[in-house]
C-alpha cells in the first residue's frame, strides 16, 4: 500500500473503527480518530448517554458498561463493538489532539460536521510541508449495520485510490466514477500539511 489513511467520525467508536478494522485486516496503513469534545455511547435513554474522555481505554469502557447493564449493552451492540475496538487499538483518539501521529495522504470522514471539523483543523495548522491531503466525506448513519456497509464502501474507495498513479491528477474522475458505481454522493476537498 502506498497511501496513509485516517478514518474519522465523532467518537472514534463505530464508523471510524469499523473502517479502521477492515482496512487494517486488508493491509492498509490506517489510523482512526474522533472529532467530538467527548466520547459518547448510548445509555439507558437518549438523555443518559455514557460519556468518556478521549484516551479512556476501550477495555475500561467495556468493563464499565458490562458492570452497569450487561444485557442492555449486549443487546444494543455496544459491548461487541467495544470488544472489536480493543482488538484494533488501545483507546479512542481525538483528531485535534493527535496531529503529531503523522501525515496522512487521505482522510475519510463519515459525517458532514466531522468533515468540516477536520478541514477547519487542517486549515488552522501551519502549512510547513505544503504536502497535499485528500479529505473525503462518505455520509454513514451511526448504527452498526450502516457502519459495516460504510466500511466496505470505504475499502472499495481506498482500493481505487491505491490503483491510481496520482490521485491529484485524476480525483474528479475517480470520485464521479465511484459515485455512479456506489450510488452514493461523496464530498471532498484538498488541504495541506
From TrEMBL:
| UniProt keyword annotations, A-Z | Hydrolase, mRNA processing, Nucleus, Protein phosphatase
Q: What class of enzyme is it?
A: hydrolase
List the GO cellular component terms: nucleus
Origin, by domain of life? Eukaryota
InterPro entries listed in its UniProt record:
RNA_pol_II_suA (IPR006811)
Q: Where found in the cell?
A: Nucleus
Give the family, as the similarity comment puts it.
Answer: Belongs to the SSU72 phosphatase family.
Can you name this protein? RNA polymerase II subunit A C-terminal domain phosphatase SSU72
- Which species does this protein come from? Kingdonia uniflora
Please name the taxonomic classification of the source. Eukaryota, Viridiplantae, Streptophyta, Embryophyta, Tracheophyta
